[in-house]
Amino acid sequence: MEFTDLIKKRRSVRAYKEETVSSDVISEIITEAYQAPSWKNSQTARYYVANTPEAIEKVRKALPEFNNRSSANAALVITTFVKDISGFTAGAADNELSNKWGAYDLGLNNAYFVLAAKEKGLDTLIMGLRDANMLREEFGIPKTEQITAVIALGYGVSEPAPRRDRAVDEVAKFL
Ligand SMILES: Cc1cc2nc3c(=O)[nH]c(=O)nc-3n(C[C@H](O)[C@H](O)[C@H](O)COP(=O)(O)O)c2cc1C
Question: How many independent structural domains does the chain possess?
C-alpha cells in the first residue's frame, strides 16, 4: 500500500472478526515497529503479547467495560518502556522531560506498530484506559518498566466513519 494511503486508512477499530492473528505476523509487526527512532537508539519499548484465549482473557480483565467490548476477538498487546534510560545519561536526566522521553519513544514505536499492522491487513485500537497494576501483577511486569498502552490487534469488522481533522494553519506555524 502507498504510504499516504496507509496513514489515511489506519483508524482505531472497535469491532473485530472472530479470526485468530498469527503470532508470526505479530513478530513481524514488532520487528517493523522497532525501525522507529529512539533517544540515542536506546530501544526501550517492550511488548507483552497476549495471543492465546487464556492470556487474552487475563488482559481483558484489566480493561474498563468500554474497551473490553471494543477489543473483543482481538489479540491484546501490552506496551511498556524501560524507565531511566531514554532521556538519561549515566543515570541522570538530560533535561526536564526525564522519563517522558521514554514515553515519546514508545509512542513512536507504537505508531510504527499500528501502521505496520495496517499494511498487513490488520486493524488496531490503542487503549490508554487500562488497569496497569492488574497487568503488572498478572504478568509479572517488572517495576523498571512503565506500563503504557494496551493495543488491540485483529481483523476489523468494518471501517470507521471518516474523522474531522484540524487544518494545517490551525496546528502549524511556519516561522
Ligand atoms: C494514547 C492513546 C490512548 C487512547 N486510548 C483509548 C482508549 O482507551 N479507548 C478508545 O476507545 N480509544 C482510545 N484511543 C483512540 C483514540 O480515541 C483515537 O486514536 C482518536 O479518536 C483518533 O481516531 P483514529 O485513531 O480512528 O484516527 C487512544 C489513542 C491514543 C493515541
Answer: 1
Tell me the per-residue pLDDT of 60-85, one tens digit each, with 9 for 90 and over: 999 999 999 999 999 999 999 999 99
Give the position, in ligand 1's atom list, of the atom nearest the Cα of 130.
8
CA 30 to chain centre: 10
- The model's pTM is 0.98
Give the residue, out of 127, 148, 163, with the most ligand 1 atoms within 8 A of its beta carbon, to mutate for a pocket test.
127
Q: What is the CATH number of the domain that holds 143?
A: 3.40.109.10
Ligand 1, pocket residues at CB < 6 Å: 11-12, 67, 70, 125-129, 149, 160, 163
